[in-house]
């Protein structure tokens, strides 16, 4: 709340967020599955370079 006050953000508008953070959160871990890896799994391809829409290869962007 102190940081919100410093940045002139009205705490009344974000009461719901402050209420969720008041007692902390339960222990949790993140999980991220990249879109390319999802497409790789769904299509059954063996090489991820075959499913990347815009692959980055050496010398593909010369200046």
Structural class: mainly alpha
- What number is the mean pLDDT? 85
Ends apart, CA distance between termini: 48 Å
Largest sheet: none
β-sheet strand percentage: under 5%
Fraction in helix: 25-40%
H and E string: HHH
The count of strands amounts to: 0
Label the overall shape: elongated
CA radius of gyration: 22 Å
Instruction: Give the count of helical stretches.
Output: 3
Low-confidence stretches: none
Tally of separate domains: 1
Features:
3 helices, about 60 residues, elongated, single chain, mainly alpha, about 35% helix
Structural summary, described in words:
By secondary structure, the chain is mainly α. It contains 3 helices and no strands. The termini are far apart. The model has no long low-confidence stretch (mean pLDDT 85).
How would you briefly describe this protein structure?
The chain is mainly α. It is 33% helix and 0% strand.
Task: Draw up the topology in text.
Elements: H1 2-6, H2 15-21, H3 35-43
